[in-house]
Task: inverse folding
């Protein structure tokens, strides 16, 4: 969006939660090493994704289906970066789809997939709303480069690929020409961190990113933590919000079916409250739900993890734990006298 349009919107727009939602499935798992995260969109849909979202008062849900995932293509060789060409091709399609959903004036809800797909969702969002801010809810910071990563898995690198301030720390990445990192790290905040690699910590401190690790959340509570972040990166409360929610931000007891679980995480109640607060700003425009791996754990684990993800989405999209009044009805039903 050009800056004049942004200015016009900021002057005229009173933010209201968007009641229209577009679902995008991304059955992609090449950003990490374990089988299973690619079957999450199907598993979450069959657990009742659309139906449970439709229970939210006044909501309009459109399913855009799954994006095309390339199965093989010309491999490119970049040191310590596995499957880069596939990651790149998937994200290119995804970026276009997210832009389309946002242009349709719907909240873009992307169901992953591993967290490497954050490159496509944020890129697609940025292309529509250049003033967007990004809340990365995760046990991990996902801000490694191929030089600092121990794993070589791209799901630990999406933030570093996205932010312009780190572009000089990358080599030339063949196949990634479509993605120009323009998003500023100044518009990023973290919630839930508890497994941060050394160079990731260095990047967070160098750029003074508001990063609420679990100890900070313990100290301040989830409400003050998210309000602090939102105020730090957008003091006037004018910018569209993108939440990239990695299910491993939740405690491993709440979400066991995930590839890189870390104990001591957010309770589901904290995550719900976080999403309710962000919903309450009226500015939430994109949610990613990633790293659910239905192939890990037993039936109960799978069910608990998917259900936790659905609770997070519902909270972000306006479901109220207080309950809602039936629409158009003003009083309790009276009893009609019985005939016999
Ligand atoms: N999206 C995730 N679950 N990321 C885990 C990343 C773990 C580790 N920091 C790495 O770079 O490999
Ligand atoms: Mn992640
Ligand atoms: Mn993670």
Result:
């Amino acid at each position: 969006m050009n800056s004049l349009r942004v200015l016009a919107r900021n002057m005229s727009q009173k933010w209201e939660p968007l009641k229209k939602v577009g679902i995008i499935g991304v059955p992609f798992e090449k950003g990490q090493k374990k089988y299973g995260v690619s079957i999450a969109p199907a598993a979450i849909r069959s657990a009742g994704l659309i139906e449970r979202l439709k229970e939210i008062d006044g909501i309009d849900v459109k399913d855009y289906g799954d994006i095309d995932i390339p199965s093989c293509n010309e491999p490119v060789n970049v040191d310590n970066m596995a499957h880069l060409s596939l990651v790149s091709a998937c994200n290119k399609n995804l970026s276009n789809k997210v832009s389309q959903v946002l242009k349709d004036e719907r909240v873009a809800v992307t169901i992953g997939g591993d967290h490497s797909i954050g490159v496509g969702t944020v890129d697609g969002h940025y292309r529509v709303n250049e003033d967007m801010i990004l809340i990365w809810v995760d046990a991990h910071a996902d801000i490694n480069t191929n030089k600092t990563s121990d794993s070589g898995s791209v799901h630990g690198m999406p933030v570093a690929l996205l932010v312009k301030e780190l572009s000089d720390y990358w080599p030339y990445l063949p196949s990634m020409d479509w993605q120009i990192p323009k998003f500023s790290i100044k518009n990023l905040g973290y919630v839930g961190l508890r497994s941060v690699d050394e160079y990731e910590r260095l990047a967070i401190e160098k750029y003074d990113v508001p990063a609420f690790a679990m100890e900070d959340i313990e100290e301040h509570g989830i409400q003050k933590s998210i309000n602090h972040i939102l105020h730090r990166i957008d003091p006037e409360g004018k910018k569209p919000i993108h939440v990239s929610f990695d299910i491993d931000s939740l405690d491993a007891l709440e979400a066991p079916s995930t590839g890189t679980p870390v104990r001591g995480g957010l309770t589901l109640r904290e995550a719900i409250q976080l999403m309710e607060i962000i919903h309450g700003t009226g500015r939430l425009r994109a949610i990613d739900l990633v790293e659910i791996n239905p192939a890990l754990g037993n039936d109960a684990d799978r069910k608990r993890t998917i259900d936790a993800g659905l609770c997070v989405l519902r909270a972000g999209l306006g479901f109220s734990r207080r309950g809602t009044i039936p629409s158009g009805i003003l009083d309790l039903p009276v009893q009609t006298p019985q005939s016999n």
Remarks:
- The chain has one domain: 20-316.
- The chain has a mean pLDDT of 95.
- The radius of gyration is 20 Å.
- Residues 115, 140, 142, 144, 149-151, 153, 155-156, 197, 246, 248, 260, 291 surround arginine (ligand 1) (CB under 6 Å).
